[in-house]
Amino acid sequence: INYIKSSLKKGNTKEDITKSLFKAGYEANVIEYHFNCIENESKKHPNLLLYLLIFFISLSIVSGIMNFILYTKQTSSQRYEEIVLESKDLCTDGKYDKSFVKLEKAIKLDEKRAFAYAIIGYCYLQQNKSAEAVLALTEAVRRYSREPLYFYRLGIAHCNLNNYNLAIPNLRRSIELNPG
Fold first, then answer.
1. What's the pLDDT tens digit per position in 6-44?
2. How far is CA 32 from each of CA 12, 35, 40, 71, 115, rounded to the nearest angstrom?
3. Can you give the pLDDT at residue 104?
4. How many Cβ atoms are within 10 Å of 168's Cβ, its own excluded?
5. pLDDT tens-place string over residues 84-102
6. Which residues contact 11 (CB under 8 A, 6 or more apart)?
7. How far apart are CA 99 and CA 120, in angstroms?
8. Which long-range CB contacts under 8 A does 46-49 form with residues at least 24 apart?
9. Angle at 129 between CA 126 and CA 135, to 5 degrees
10. Are the beta carbons of 60 and 29 closer than 8 angstroms?
């Protein structure tokens, strides 16, 4: 079969290959059988090369899309962190309005994360607006309940409002998350 395939690739006709094999001692029915096998094989996979090409192009496109999504997600995540940290610095410097504008941008980038809400609460605490701080910090805790600082600040905000029955559980939870 390999001889027939290589001869066909070289451009030899079926008749020339049959004559050559017949002279070499092969029987006509065996030669015909091998030609039929080759034809059936090519009918099974007539466009195998085309299918493989389409597969690899598709794989390449999907890979490119995935890389773009991962890059974009990583970039927006990094940008989110930068904006929130800048906002915290602005808040610490007493520039609350600028801080809140930046925090709104951060929330638009990723509204599921808690960090921006925690900094909003921090800014309200800095301004002695404890009721607003409670709302923002409650949202931060709802979105991420493993950060002791969120519970600590929420407890402090409740203390400022004389809500000790709400302050104590939050302060305890802060200590549980960070006993050291």
1. 888 888 888 888 888 888 888 888 888 888 887 776 665
2. 16, 5, 12, 58, 76
3. 96
4. 13
5. 999 999 999 999 999 999 9
6. none
7. 8
8. none
9. 105
10. no
Percent of the chain's residues with pLDDT above 90 = 54
CB distance 153 to 125 below 8 Å: yes
For Cα atoms 122, 123, 126, give the angle at the middle one, nearest 5 degrees. Answer: 90
Contact status, residue 106 vs residue 87, Cβ threshold 8 Å: yes
Report in angstroms the alpha-carbon separations of 102 from 139, 155, 160, 163. Answer: 18, 25, 26, 30
Distance separating alpha carbons of residues 88 and 125, to the nearest angstrom: 12
Token pair recorded at residue 35: 């030609």
Pair of tokens at residue 65: 């899309």
